[in-house]
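User:
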Amino acid sequence: MRNYFLILVIGFLVILGCEDKKYGPVVTDSIPPQPVTIDSVRNIAGGAIVIYSTPDDVDFSYVRATFIRNGKESEARASVYTNRVTIEGLEDTIPRNVKLYSVDKSENVSQPVSVTIEPLKPPYMQVFNSVTIAPDFGGALFVWENKTHKPVQVELFAEDSTHVLRSQKIVPSNMELGVESLRGYDTIPRTFGVLVFDKWENYSPDTLTAEITPWFEEEFDKSEWSFFYLPNDEDWSAWEGKDFNMFDGNILDFCHTWGGGMWPPAFTIDLGGVKKISRMKLWMRLVSGVGNIYKGFWYGHGNPKSWKVFGRADAPDPATDVQYVDDETWENLGWTLMKDATKTSTDPETFTMIRPTQNGGSAAEDEKQAMDGAEFILDVTNPTVRYVRVIITETWDGANYVCFGELSFFGASAE
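Assistant: Predicted structure:
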């Protein structure tokens, strides 16, 4: 009986404790704080950073800045712990007025202090002005720069059968160099276009267009491929890996070299015919030893980061194969060092995988590249080849072994 009574008392107290309570500032008043003092303005792309001195009011809480963006009043806030407020997302470079207010803990607002800012060219317009559209195998190649690393959306268009531009793809981009293609089109003239916008709904003033005649392209048939073993090629069937896994069409298995072997390791593939290579895709090792997706291996664990690609049309002579010394050695033996079309000024003869999160991108972009394969556009000046020799020059974690999931080449037959 006593226990029952205690339970009733406790329940009653809990109910009393659950009554709604209204919380407000510990100290309230109706006295507005003093205004901030403007110290300087640093104009940035699409906005400005306004630096100020805060008032001495003990209950000062934050600064609110108001300004016009896209014809609407907008605001930015800065807490008591900083002395600057950032204005961003402005659509043009027209000077404009910004008003700063001090706000205290009672939400009293000071008289405004006005300052004029002169925004630099907005990021979305910088990207738009940098876009080039060029012919590509099976479509058009779009290349742009985003030097501010601010997130923008790049929308790609292609002309349909009724000669109307239709949106095909929207590419989020905040990496410094953006490269994207629209493919799957016949080799007839077609108009392609692009516009750029940002999260504040600022759009490029027009759609950039170009009439492009796509080049013929197909994915090379891997059933025609075979290894062409040269005396100094590495063994790619170590541990759970098998050499033929690199072109078996399955991204969820892998090839693997032995640790501590020859460095840099190489392999040679006979494509089964003379080809003009337009692009290459490489998938990292995506799985554990038992075949389960394991993100811990991505961008690490011996996955290739940089490599060189040599090609030739005639069969190499195994008797003249030598251990890798330098590029000139291989070229003297009849191989041509292939070039990356997107690297025109910095080492175009080295293919380097770029991890999005290390270049202003997101974790979602990291995963997308891992699952879709990292793509590389080859320079159109590269020769036609039948034999391809890949030499891994760097792994993501510096490991002295290499593993990866799959390799694909695209282009057209030259026979």
